[in-house]
Specification:
mainly alpha
Length: 218
């Protein structure tokens, strides 16, 4: 495919719209006729969908959110196999779309599943390493937020060391990975505050009440 000066921008914007599809919100309404933004944590991601609607809906949200991160990177790699910069741009576009979707007034999810799909295509050994970090942290603490933050924080180093045997990744990939990690940690700002205060809820599949019900119970 011919590359023009507008190719990077087109890739990023197309990936943004792919990433902005709010699968968690759509599945919440499909499975439970519930707006997940009004239940539990108010997040449209897989964890809150699982808590609010059920495990099946949560797993499906996880798969679809990962797929919308993977698909743009896979397409960029298919059309531009020699240009890792285009692949990282596509992944970042999808991640930004998930975190700041135009359809939801730029109030989206936290990007963990979308980033997993994104890096699963870009550098699967690093994604596997981050998954191991996630599983270890959530196994010992039962804090999904802490596991997500830990996995995101580990990704820049994992990509750097596992990009290819005896080769460091291109600078654009390193910077893009760092940007993705910072964005995910930033989106967990409220979780970090609750972790410090000791009020962060541990993961449970027990369905959570609507926000107004939680306030009444307190």
């Amino acid at each position: 495919m011919e590359i023009t000066t507008s190719t990077p921008a087109i890739l990023f914007v197309a990936a943004y719209f792919c990433g902005s599809i709010p699968f968690g919100l759509l599945l919440g309404k499909l499975f439970g006729a519930t707006d997940v933004r009004k239940t539990g944590s108010g997040n449209i991601g897989a964890t809150n969908v699982a808590r609010s609607i059920g495990l099946g809906a949560g797993i499906l949200t996880l798969v679809l959110d990962a797929a919308k991160g993977a698909a743009p990177v896979w397409l960029a790699r298919s059309y531009f196999p020699e240009h890792a910069t285009f692949q990282i741009l596509a992944g970042l576009g999808a991640l930004v779309g998930h975190c700041f979707p135009v359809w939801l007034k730029f109030r989206g999810g936290k990007g963990v599943a979308t980033a997993a799909g994104f890096f699963g295509v870009l550098c699967w050994p690093a994604a596997l390493g981050a998954l191991l970090v996630f599983v270890l942290v959530v196994s010992f603490t039962r804090y999904v937020s802490l596991a997500s933050i830990s996995a995101a924080a580990s990704m820049p180093l994992l990509v750097y060391f596992l990009w290819a045997p005896h080769y460091a990744p291109p600078l654009a990939v390193s910077l893009g990975t760092l940007a993705a990690a910072i964005l995910i940690v930033y989106k967990h700002d409220a979780n970090l505050q609750r972790l410090v205060e000791g009020t962060e809820p541990k993961f449970s599949l027990r369905k959570t009440p609507h926000k107004h019900e939680e306030k009444e119970a307190e």
